[in-house]
Amino acid sequence: MKLTLDNDIAVIEKISSVPTILEAVTELTGLRFVCIARVTSNSWHSCAVLDKLNFGLKVGDPLDVATTLCDEVRETNAAIIIDSVRDSEQYCDHRTPQMYGFQSYFSIPLYRPSGEYFGTLCGLDPEKADLTRLATRNTLILFAELISRQLASEVVLRDTKTALSDEKEASKLREQFIAMLGHDIRTPLSTLSNGVEILRQKAPAALTPLLDVMKRSVLRIASMVDDVTDFTRGRMGGGISLNLRHETNLDRLLQHPVDELRNVYPQRQILTNFPQGLALFCDAPRLGQLLSNLLKNAIVHGSDSEPVFVNVKETNGIFELSVTNSGQPIPKEIQAQLFKPFWQSPTGNASQGLGLGLFIASEIALSHGGTLEVASSDAATTFTYRARTAAFVERRESTRLL
Known about the structure:
CATH class of the largest domain: Alpha Beta
GO biological process, one term: osmosensory signaling via phosphorelay pathway
Number of helices: 12
Strand content: 15-25%
Enzyme class: transferase
Largest sheet: 6 strands, antiparallel
Protein name: histidine kinase
Strand order of the largest sheet: 3-2-1-6-5-4
Keywords: Kinase, Phosphoprotein, Transferase
Radius of gyration: 24 Å
Structural class: alpha+beta
Catalytic activity: ATP + protein L-histidine = ADP + protein N-phospho-L-histidine
Low-confidence stretches: 396-402
Protein backbone atom coordinates (compact mmCIF):
# COMPACT_ATOMS: atom_id res chain seq x y z
CA MET A 1 0.00 0.00 0.00
CA LYS A 2 2.84 2.41 0.89
CA LEU A 3 4.52 2.03 -2.51
CA THR A 4 1.23 2.53 -4.39
CA LEU A 5 0.38 5.61 -2.30
CA ASP A 6 3.85 7.09 -2.89
CA ASN A 7 3.37 6.62 -6.64
CA ASP A 8 -0.05 8.30 -6.54
CA ILE A 9 1.31 11.27 -4.57
CA ALA A 10 4.23 11.54 -7.01
CA VAL A 11 1.82 11.64 -9.98
CA ILE A 12 -0.12 14.53 -8.41
CA GLU A 13 3.10 16.37 -7.51
CA LYS A 14 4.24 16.17 -11.14
CA ILE A 15 1.16 18.11 -12.28
CA SER A 16 2.56 21.63 -12.01
CA SER A 17 -0.86 23.26 -12.40
CA VAL A 18 -2.25 21.62 -9.24
CA PRO A 19 -1.10 24.38 -6.79
CA THR A 20 -2.59 27.01 -9.11
CA ILE A 21 -5.88 25.09 -9.33
CA LEU A 22 -6.09 24.72 -5.54
CA GLU A 23 -5.43 28.44 -5.11
CA ALA A 24 -8.05 29.28 -7.74
CA VAL A 25 -10.60 27.09 -5.94
CA THR A 26 -10.04 28.94 -2.66
CA GLU A 27 -10.42 32.29 -4.41
CA LEU A 28 -13.57 31.14 -6.19
CA THR A 29 -15.31 29.56 -3.19
CA GLY A 30 -13.83 31.23 -0.11
CA LEU A 31 -13.12 27.79 1.37
CA ARG A 32 -9.93 27.76 3.39
CA PHE A 33 -9.10 24.08 3.07
CA VAL A 34 -8.83 22.39 -0.33
CA CYS A 35 -7.09 19.14 -1.20
CA ILE A 36 -6.76 16.28 -3.64
CA ALA A 37 -7.38 12.94 -1.93
CA ARG A 38 -6.60 9.38 -3.00
CA VAL A 39 -9.65 7.34 -1.98
CA THR A 40 -10.11 3.57 -2.02
CA SER A 41 -12.66 1.28 -0.40
CA ASN A 42 -10.55 1.13 2.75
CA SER A 43 -8.31 4.23 2.76
CA TRP A 44 -8.21 8.02 2.41
CA HIS A 45 -4.91 9.90 1.94
CA SER A 46 -4.15 13.50 0.99
CA CYS A 47 -2.01 13.95 -2.16
CA ALA A 48 -2.00 17.77 -2.38
CA VAL A 49 -3.13 20.28 0.24
CA LEU A 50 -3.84 24.01 0.47
CA ASP A 51 -4.63 24.67 4.12
CA LYS A 52 -5.41 28.26 5.16
CA LEU A 53 -7.57 26.93 7.97
CA ASN A 54 -4.86 25.13 9.96
CA PHE A 55 -6.93 21.98 9.54
CA GLY A 56 -3.76 20.01 10.16
CA LEU A 57 -3.59 17.59 7.23
CA LYS A 58 -0.30 17.30 5.32
CA VAL A 59 0.51 15.50 2.08
CA GLY A 60 0.35 11.76 2.71
CA ASP A 61 -1.75 12.04 5.88
CA PRO A 62 -4.65 9.56 6.26
CA LEU A 63 -8.22 9.81 7.47
CA ASP A 64 -10.57 6.98 8.36
CA VAL A 65 -12.34 6.66 5.02
CA ALA A 66 -15.56 5.53 6.72
CA THR A 67 -15.78 8.93 8.42
CA THR A 68 -15.53 10.91 5.16
CA LEU A 69 -18.08 11.99 2.58
CA CYS A 70 -15.49 11.15 -0.08
CA ASP A 71 -16.39 7.52 0.55
CA GLU A 72 -19.97 8.28 -0.52
CA VAL A 73 -18.62 9.99 -3.64
CA ARG A 74 -16.60 6.87 -4.44
CA GLU A 75 -19.62 4.62 -4.02
CA THR A 76 -22.02 6.77 -6.07
CA ASN A 77 -19.58 8.38 -8.55
CA ALA A 78 -21.49 11.62 -7.92
CA ALA A 79 -20.28 14.93 -6.52
CA ILE A 80 -21.40 16.20 -3.12
CA ILE A 81 -21.71 19.98 -2.80
CA ILE A 82 -23.09 21.60 0.36
CA ASP A 83 -23.62 25.33 0.92
CA SER A 84 -24.61 24.99 4.57
CA VAL A 85 -24.78 21.80 6.60
CA ARG A 86 -27.24 23.26 9.12
CA ASP A 87 -29.62 24.14 6.24
CA SER A 88 -29.28 20.75 4.52
CA GLU A 89 -31.98 18.18 5.23
CA GLN A 90 -29.66 15.39 4.09
CA TYR A 91 -26.54 16.34 6.05
CA CYS A 92 -27.67 18.46 9.01
CA ASP A 93 -27.51 15.43 11.34
CA HIS A 94 -24.72 13.60 9.51
CA ARG A 95 -21.79 12.54 11.70
CA THR A 96 -19.07 13.66 9.26
CA PRO A 97 -19.75 17.44 9.42
CA GLN A 98 -20.08 17.16 13.18
CA MET A 99 -16.81 15.23 13.45
CA TYR A 100 -14.76 17.60 11.28
CA GLY A 101 -16.59 20.83 12.13
CA PHE A 102 -17.49 22.15 8.68
CA GLN A 103 -20.53 23.95 7.29
CA SER A 104 -19.66 24.26 3.59
CA TYR A 105 -18.18 21.35 1.68
CA PHE A 106 -17.63 19.86 -1.75
CA SER A 107 -16.17 16.61 -3.03
CA ILE A 108 -15.91 15.89 -6.77
CA PRO A 109 -14.64 12.58 -8.19
CA LEU A 110 -11.33 12.26 -10.07
CA TYR A 111 -10.61 9.45 -12.51
CA ARG A 112 -7.62 7.75 -14.03
CA PRO A 113 -7.48 7.60 -17.87
CA SER A 114 -8.85 4.03 -17.75
CA GLY A 115 -11.98 5.36 -16.04
CA GLU A 116 -10.91 3.91 -12.69
CA TYR A 117 -11.81 6.03 -9.69
CA PHE A 118 -8.74 7.83 -8.29
CA GLY A 119 -10.11 10.02 -5.53
CA THR A 120 -11.60 13.48 -5.09
CA LEU A 121 -11.00 17.18 -5.34
CA CYS A 122 -12.53 18.35 -2.08
CA GLY A 123 -12.76 21.36 0.21
CA LEU A 124 -14.40 22.53 3.41
CA ASP A 125 -14.82 25.49 5.73
CA PRO A 126 -16.48 26.11 9.12
CA GLU A 127 -18.49 28.94 7.50
CA LYS A 128 -21.20 28.45 4.90
CA ALA A 129 -20.50 29.37 1.27
CA ASP A 130 -22.38 29.66 -2.03
CA LEU A 131 -21.13 26.50 -3.72
CA THR A 132 -24.24 25.15 -5.44
CA ARG A 133 -24.66 28.21 -7.66
CA LEU A 134 -24.51 26.90 -11.24
CA ALA A 135 -21.45 28.87 -12.33
CA THR A 136 -19.52 27.92 -9.19
CA ARG A 137 -20.52 24.26 -9.43
CA ASN A 138 -19.55 24.10 -13.12
CA THR A 139 -16.19 25.72 -12.42
CA LEU A 140 -15.40 23.23 -9.65
CA ILE A 141 -16.34 20.35 -11.96
CA LEU A 142 -14.09 21.86 -14.67
CA PHE A 143 -11.17 21.98 -12.24
CA ALA A 144 -11.75 18.30 -11.39
CA GLU A 145 -11.86 17.47 -15.12
CA LEU A 146 -8.58 19.33 -15.65
CA ILE A 147 -6.90 17.30 -12.91
CA SER A 148 -8.33 14.05 -14.33
CA ARG A 149 -7.01 15.04 -17.77
CA GLN A 150 -3.61 15.74 -16.24
CA LEU A 151 -3.69 12.31 -14.60
CA ALA A 152 -4.25 10.97 -18.11
CA SER A 153 -1.41 13.13 -19.38
CA GLU A 154 1.02 11.69 -16.85
CA VAL A 155 0.04 8.13 -17.77
CA VAL A 156 0.34 8.85 -21.49
CA LEU A 157 3.76 10.43 -21.02
CA ARG A 158 4.98 7.48 -18.95
CA ASP A 159 3.66 4.90 -21.40
CA THR A 160 5.08 6.82 -24.37
CA LYS A 161 8.54 6.92 -22.84
CA THR A 162 8.37 3.21 -22.12
CA ALA A 163 7.09 2.25 -25.56
CA LEU A 164 9.48 4.40 -27.63
CA SER A 165 13.24 4.06 -27.50
CA ASP A 166 13.68 7.08 -29.75
CA GLU A 167 13.59 10.09 -27.41
CA LYS A 168 12.92 12.49 -30.25
CA GLU A 169 9.81 10.59 -31.32
CA ALA A 170 8.64 10.39 -27.70
CA SER A 171 9.00 14.16 -27.39
CA LYS A 172 6.99 14.73 -30.58
CA LEU A 173 4.11 12.56 -29.36
CA ARG A 174 4.13 14.33 -26.00
CA GLU A 175 3.88 17.74 -27.63
CA GLN A 176 1.05 16.61 -29.90
CA PHE A 177 -0.85 15.43 -26.85
CA ILE A 178 -0.32 18.77 -25.08
CA ALA A 179 -1.52 20.64 -28.16
CA MET A 180 -4.69 18.52 -28.28
CA LEU A 181 -5.22 18.98 -24.56
CA GLY A 182 -4.90 22.75 -24.91
CA HIS A 183 -7.43 22.71 -27.75
CA ASP A 184 -9.90 20.60 -25.74
CA ILE A 185 -9.68 22.86 -22.71
CA ARG A 186 -10.46 26.02 -24.69
CA THR A 187 -14.10 25.05 -25.31
CA PRO A 188 -15.18 24.69 -21.64
CA LEU A 189 -13.10 27.76 -20.76
CA SER A 190 -14.90 29.79 -23.42
CA THR A 191 -18.24 28.57 -22.07
CA LEU A 192 -17.27 29.58 -18.53
CA SER A 193 -16.03 32.98 -19.66
CA ASN A 194 -19.23 33.69 -21.59
CA GLY A 195 -21.30 32.48 -18.65
CA VAL A 196 -19.51 34.85 -16.28
CA GLU A 197 -20.15 37.79 -18.60
CA ILE A 198 -23.85 36.90 -18.89
CA LEU A 199 -24.12 36.62 -15.11
CA ARG A 200 -22.34 39.96 -14.72
CA GLN A 201 -25.08 41.63 -16.79
CA LYS A 202 -27.97 40.04 -14.90
CA ALA A 203 -26.69 39.35 -11.40
CA PRO A 204 -27.10 41.80 -8.48
CA ALA A 205 -24.16 43.99 -7.53
CA ALA A 206 -23.48 41.86 -4.45
CA LEU A 207 -22.23 39.06 -6.72
CA THR A 208 -19.69 41.24 -8.53
CA PRO A 209 -16.73 40.23 -6.28
CA LEU A 210 -17.46 36.53 -6.85
CA LEU A 211 -17.79 37.05 -10.61
CA ASP A 212 -14.49 38.97 -10.60
CA VAL A 213 -12.79 36.03 -8.87
CA MET A 214 -14.29 33.59 -11.38
CA LYS A 215 -13.16 35.77 -14.27
CA ARG A 216 -9.61 35.93 -12.91
CA SER A 217 -9.59 32.14 -12.46
CA VAL A 218 -10.71 31.59 -16.06
CA LEU A 219 -8.11 34.06 -17.34
CA ARG A 220 -5.38 32.35 -15.31
CA ILE A 221 -6.17 28.94 -16.79
CA ALA A 222 -6.52 30.46 -20.28
CA SER A 223 -3.07 32.02 -19.89
CA MET A 224 -1.62 28.63 -18.94
CA VAL A 225 -3.27 27.05 -22.00
CA ASP A 226 -1.88 29.81 -24.24
CA ASP A 227 1.62 29.25 -22.84
CA VAL A 228 1.45 25.51 -23.46
CA THR A 229 0.06 26.05 -26.97
CA ASP A 230 2.82 28.52 -27.84
CA PHE A 231 5.43 26.17 -26.44
CA THR A 232 4.07 23.20 -28.40
CA ARG A 233 3.83 25.15 -31.65
CA GLY A 234 7.44 26.24 -31.25
CA ARG A 235 8.71 22.75 -30.50
CA MET A 236 6.76 21.22 -33.40
CA GLY A 237 8.38 23.55 -35.91
CA GLY A 238 5.75 26.25 -36.26
CA GLY A 239 7.60 28.82 -34.19
CA ILE A 240 5.94 31.75 -32.43
CA SER A 241 3.48 33.13 -35.00
CA LEU A 242 3.70 36.88 -35.70
CA ASN A 243 1.45 39.42 -37.39
CA LEU A 244 3.99 42.15 -38.14
CA ARG A 245 2.94 45.72 -38.85
CA HIS A 246 4.17 49.28 -38.33
CA GLU A 247 3.02 50.40 -34.88
CA THR A 248 3.13 54.13 -34.22
CA ASN A 249 1.46 54.22 -30.79
CA LEU A 250 3.38 51.49 -29.07
CA ASP A 251 3.25 53.30 -25.72
CA ARG A 252 -0.51 52.84 -25.46
CA LEU A 253 -0.32 49.21 -26.56
CA LEU A 254 2.32 48.40 -23.94
CA GLN A 255 0.26 50.08 -21.23
CA HIS A 256 -2.42 47.35 -21.48
CA PRO A 257 -0.42 44.47 -19.91
CA VAL A 258 0.84 46.86 -17.22
CA ASP A 259 -2.73 47.83 -16.29
CA GLU A 260 -3.82 44.18 -16.27
CA LEU A 261 -1.07 43.17 -13.84
CA ARG A 262 -1.75 46.21 -11.65
CA ASN A 263 -5.29 44.87 -11.26
CA VAL A 264 -4.04 41.36 -10.48
CA TYR A 265 -1.35 42.60 -8.02
CA PRO A 266 -2.86 45.81 -6.56
CA GLN A 267 -0.42 45.75 -3.65
CA ARG A 268 2.62 46.02 -5.95
CA GLN A 269 3.96 49.30 -7.35
CA ILE A 270 4.76 49.32 -11.07
CA LEU A 271 6.51 52.42 -12.44
CA THR A 272 6.66 52.95 -16.21
CA ASN A 273 8.47 55.17 -18.66
CA PHE A 274 6.86 54.91 -22.11
CA PRO A 275 7.87 57.68 -24.57
CA GLN A 276 5.02 58.75 -26.84
CA GLY A 277 4.94 58.18 -30.59
CA LEU A 278 7.56 55.43 -30.66
CA ALA A 279 7.39 53.47 -33.95
CA LEU A 280 8.29 49.82 -34.28
CA PHE A 281 7.77 47.13 -36.91
CA CYS A 282 6.43 44.38 -34.70
CA ASP A 283 3.52 42.23 -33.57
CA ALA A 284 2.18 44.48 -30.80
CA PRO A 285 0.06 41.83 -28.99
CA ARG A 286 3.05 39.47 -28.93
CA LEU A 287 5.28 42.27 -27.65
CA GLY A 288 2.65 42.93 -24.97
CA GLN A 289 2.79 39.21 -24.11
CA LEU A 290 6.58 39.46 -23.80
CA LEU A 291 6.23 42.44 -21.45
CA SER A 292 3.50 40.71 -19.44
CA ASN A 293 5.67 37.61 -18.91
CA LEU A 294 8.69 39.67 -17.86
CA LEU A 295 6.62 41.86 -15.56
CA LYS A 296 4.89 38.90 -13.93
CA ASN A 297 8.28 37.27 -13.37
CA ALA A 298 9.60 40.46 -11.74
CA ILE A 299 6.55 40.75 -9.47
CA VAL A 300 6.66 37.10 -8.37
CA HIS A 301 10.42 36.89 -7.78
CA GLY A 302 11.26 40.48 -6.84
CA SER A 303 11.14 42.22 -3.49
CA ASP A 304 7.59 42.80 -2.23
CA SER A 305 8.53 46.15 -0.72
CA GLU A 306 10.20 47.69 -3.78
CA PRO A 307 8.64 48.89 -7.06
CA VAL A 308 9.10 47.22 -10.42
CA PHE A 309 10.37 49.51 -13.17
CA VAL A 310 9.39 49.20 -16.83
CA ASN A 311 11.44 51.39 -19.15
CA VAL A 312 11.24 51.85 -22.92
CA LYS A 313 13.66 53.89 -24.96
CA GLU A 314 15.21 54.26 -28.42
CA THR A 315 18.94 54.73 -28.86
CA ASN A 316 20.66 54.89 -32.26
CA GLY A 317 17.86 53.03 -34.00
CA ILE A 318 17.60 50.34 -31.31
CA PHE A 319 14.35 49.81 -29.43
CA GLU A 320 14.93 48.74 -25.84
CA LEU A 321 12.38 47.48 -23.32
CA SER A 322 13.60 46.63 -19.82
CA VAL A 323 11.94 45.34 -16.65
CA THR A 324 13.82 45.81 -13.38
CA ASN A 325 13.12 44.53 -9.88
CA SER A 326 14.95 44.52 -6.57
CA GLY A 327 15.58 41.39 -4.57
CA GLN A 328 18.04 38.54 -4.31
CA PRO A 329 20.50 38.37 -7.24
CA ILE A 330 20.22 35.47 -9.68
CA PRO A 331 23.37 33.31 -9.64
CA LYS A 332 25.20 32.91 -12.93
CA GLU A 333 24.50 29.17 -13.11
CA ILE A 334 20.76 29.84 -12.79
CA GLN A 335 20.80 32.68 -15.34
CA ALA A 336 21.88 30.13 -17.95
CA GLN A 337 18.73 28.09 -17.25
CA LEU A 338 16.12 30.85 -17.11
CA PHE A 339 14.99 30.74 -20.74
CA LYS A 340 14.61 26.96 -20.91
CA PRO A 341 11.04 25.55 -21.08
CA PHE A 342 9.46 24.22 -17.88
CA TRP A 343 12.51 25.25 -15.87
CA GLN A 344 11.81 26.45 -12.33
CA SER A 345 14.22 27.45 -9.61
CA PRO A 346 14.66 24.71 -6.97
CA THR A 347 14.03 27.43 -4.36
CA GLY A 348 10.87 28.67 -6.10
CA ASN A 349 7.20 27.92 -5.51
CA ALA A 350 5.53 25.41 -7.86
CA SER A 351 2.31 27.44 -7.70
CA GLN A 352 3.99 30.28 -9.58
CA GLY A 353 3.24 28.70 -12.95
CA LEU A 354 4.35 26.18 -15.53
CA GLY A 355 7.86 27.58 -16.05
CA LEU A 356 7.12 28.71 -19.61
CA GLY A 357 6.87 32.51 -19.26
CA LEU A 358 10.53 33.41 -19.81
CA PHE A 359 10.94 30.75 -22.49
CA ILE A 360 8.02 32.15 -24.49
CA ALA A 361 9.29 35.71 -23.98
CA SER A 362 12.66 34.68 -25.42
CA GLU A 363 10.95 32.96 -28.37
CA ILE A 364 8.94 36.12 -29.10
CA ALA A 365 12.16 38.12 -29.01
CA LEU A 366 13.87 35.73 -31.43
CA SER A 367 10.86 35.74 -33.77
CA HIS A 368 11.16 39.54 -33.97
CA GLY A 369 14.85 39.28 -34.77
CA GLY A 370 15.68 40.73 -31.37
CA THR A 371 17.42 39.59 -28.21
CA LEU A 372 16.38 39.04 -24.61
CA GLU A 373 19.07 39.21 -21.93
CA VAL A 374 19.26 39.21 -18.15
CA ALA A 375 21.65 41.05 -15.84
CA SER A 376 21.55 40.51 -12.09
CA SER A 377 23.45 42.01 -9.17
CA ASP A 378 22.91 42.77 -5.49
CA ALA A 379 21.29 46.06 -6.55
CA ALA A 380 18.74 44.79 -9.08
CA THR A 381 17.77 42.23 -11.73
CA THR A 382 16.95 43.50 -15.23
CA PHE A 383 15.55 41.68 -18.25
CA THR A 384 16.14 43.64 -21.47
CA TYR A 385 14.62 43.14 -24.92
CA ARG A 386 16.33 44.87 -27.85
CA ALA A 387 15.32 45.15 -31.52
CA ARG A 388 15.79 47.54 -34.41
CA THR A 389 13.18 50.30 -34.73
CA ALA A 390 11.01 50.84 -37.80
CA ALA A 391 12.97 54.00 -38.65
CA PHE A 392 16.25 52.06 -38.57
CA VAL A 393 14.89 49.38 -40.90
CA GLU A 394 13.50 51.97 -43.30
CA ARG A 395 16.81 53.87 -43.41
CA ARG A 396 18.68 50.68 -44.10
CA GLU A 397 16.31 49.70 -46.92
CA SER A 398 16.48 53.17 -48.53
CA THR A 399 20.29 53.03 -48.40
CA ARG A 400 20.26 49.73 -50.24
CA LEU A 401 18.07 51.21 -52.99
CA LEU A 402 20.46 54.13 -53.67
